[in-house]
């Protein structure tokens, strides 16, 4: 067998090939792309016997995605994607001086896969449709996060020079089409005070609001109340920044709606979509996010525990002598943890068994967020069973182990 350490950069790869005894057979710097992959194949083939197969080559690299990794998997190599923190710890075992170089990193990665591959997770290739779902689901969530950032900036700017606007538009939302339209039309206190009820009502009507007359009157009154302000030139500067932020938010709203359609279209094509949608608290967008982060490669998760560990919902126990504490995992996939947290929050509102479990945890003085983590952990286990057996969620089956408890009864 051959063991290859691949220290990747944006435009090149430093690789080292080792044999089973840890001897460095060859080191090389390969360019990114087709040319580099061809040279990688030639480099490895030079040390394999004629009857060898690509599966006898184990590659260790600090990523589990991208065209390079997919090309390695397609060629038949065993690819191990390791966390950079794991690689750094292994490098410290090999050298305590603190010296670091790309060539030394490739050597450490090759040694790592040679000596500790039983502790590493092999990269399993997801299907093409799962990869497509991941692309659109992540893009959709990123746009939402960007909208939140710009909304906070807009709120901060309004507080500095136009606090009456925050009070006036409080019944609405700062990202609403009507609020953005009114702010773009009247970004200064003087201009906002001149808005008529008819102008405000027209914006509310286009946004399909209810009780338009009462809301328009309340907004006009709030905009005309006295408040502390800034000098005229400073107000004009803030108004320019608000116009720019409003334009960005308007574009983000449109693109989020467009991308949501792409998420629904791609997720609906996946064969496991019905299983995900049957889970409590999961809709189309949330199901796409969970599928995207878990992937669909067969055999990636050997059991429910391994899926929970990857999800970051399984707790960590620290014990030393008589001291034993349990902590939440802080190193995790942020996108997956966010999706599972939202699922747990929705599940306690729509599933009686999940709600009973939540009430029991709260009765034991478990905090709200900690209870949601425990619920998310249970739901990940249930999802694993459903995906393994290709069956939809069934409340009686999923919570049968709690059927005899007073809470469940």
Secondary-structure element string = EEEHEHEHHHHHHHHHHHHEEHHHH
**Strand percentage, roughly?**
5-15%
Which structural class do the helices and strands define? alpha/beta
Kindly report the spatial arrangement of strands forming the biggest sheet.
Answer: 3-2-1-4-5
Helix content: 55-70%
Low-pLDDT segments, ≥5 res: none
Tell me the distance between the termini: 57 Å
Number of strands: 7
Return the average pLDDT rounded to an integer.
91
| Count of separate structural domains | 3
Number of alpha- plus pi-helical segments = 18
Radius of gyration: 28 Å
- Note the overall shape: globular
The major sheet is characterized as: 5 strands, mixed
Structure description:
The structure is a single chain. This protein has 409 residues and is of the alpha/beta class. The chain has three domains: 118 residues, Nucleotidyltransferase, domain 5, CATH 3.30.420.140; 134 residues; 128 residues, no CATH class. It has 18 helices and seven strands. The strands form two sheets. It has a five-stranded mixed sheet with strand order 3-2-1-4-5. Strands 6-7 form a two-stranded antiparallel sheet. Strand 6 and strand 7 form a beta hairpin. The longest helix has 37 residues.
């Amino acid at each position: 067998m051959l063991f290859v350490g691949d220290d990747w950069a944006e435009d090149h790869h430093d690789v080292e090939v080792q044999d089973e005894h840890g001897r460095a057979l060859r080191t090389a710097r390969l360019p990114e792309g087709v040319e580099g992959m061809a040279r990688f194949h030639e480099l490895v083939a030079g040390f394999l016997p004629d009857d060898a197969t690509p599966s006898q080559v184990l590659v260790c690299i600090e990523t589990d995605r991208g065209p390079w990794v997919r090309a390695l998997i397609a060629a038949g190599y065993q690819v191990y994607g390791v966390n950079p923190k794991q690689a750094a710890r292994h490098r410290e075992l090999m050298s305590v001086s603190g010296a670091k170089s790309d060539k030394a990193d490739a050597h450490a990665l090759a040694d790592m896969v040679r000596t500790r591959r039983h502790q590493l997770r092999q990269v399993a290739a997801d299907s093409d449709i799962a990869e497509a779902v991941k692309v659109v689901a992540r893009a959709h969530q990123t746009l939402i996060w960007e909208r939140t950032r710009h909304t906070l900036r807009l709120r901060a700017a309004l507080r500095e020079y136009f606090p009456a606007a925050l009070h006036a538009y409080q019944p609405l939302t700062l990202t609403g089409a009507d609020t953005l339209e009114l702010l773009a039309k009247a970004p200064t206190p003087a201009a906002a005070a001149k808005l008529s009820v008819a102008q405000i009502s027209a914006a509310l009507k286009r946004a399909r609001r209810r009780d338009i007359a009462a809301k328009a009157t309340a907004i006009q009154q709030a905009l005309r109340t006295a408040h502390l302000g800034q000098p005229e030139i400073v107000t004009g500067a803030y108004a320019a920044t608000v116009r720019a932020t409003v334009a960005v938010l308007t574009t983000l709203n449109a693109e989020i709606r467009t991308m949501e359609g792409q998420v629904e279209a791609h997720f609906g094509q996946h064969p496991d979509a019905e299983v995900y949608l049957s889970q409590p608290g999961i809709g189309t967008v949330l199901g796409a996010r969970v599928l995207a982060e878990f992937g669909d490669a067969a055999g990636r998760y050997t059991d429910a525990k391994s899926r929970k560990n990857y999800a970051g919902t399984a707790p960590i126990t620290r014990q030393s002598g008589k001291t034993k504490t349990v902590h939440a995992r802080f190193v995790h996939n942020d996108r997956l943890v966010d999706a599972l947290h939202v699922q747990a929050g929705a599940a306690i509102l729509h599933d009686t068994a999940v709600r009973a479990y939540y009430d029991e945890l709260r009765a034991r003085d478990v905090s709200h967020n900690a209870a949601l983590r425990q619920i998310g952990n249970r739901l990940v286990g249930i999802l694993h069973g459903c995906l393994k057996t290709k069956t939809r969620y069934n409340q009686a089956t999923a919570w049968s182990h709690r059927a005899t408890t007073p809470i469940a009864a």
